[in-house]
Amino acid sequence: VHNRDYKRFIELLKEYRTQKKITQKELGVRLGADQTYISKYETLERRIDFIELRNICQALDISLVEFTKKFENQLP
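Request: output the structure for the sequence above.
Response:
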């Protein structure tokens, strides 16, 4: 159920996290979650929903709109 677009979506989230030099553990702390929560969605073991995406964007200090625009621009 993880198609090409979903994989790109997760890759983009990971790119933002690594560009900001935030570890999975640090992001987990910001979200009030365990590091495994981050690891599982980054390795496609777990899907994230819209509310989770919003929380992740806030924790990464990016707007949901900015993320969405960048994602849309990367799709075929």
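The mean pLDDT is 95.
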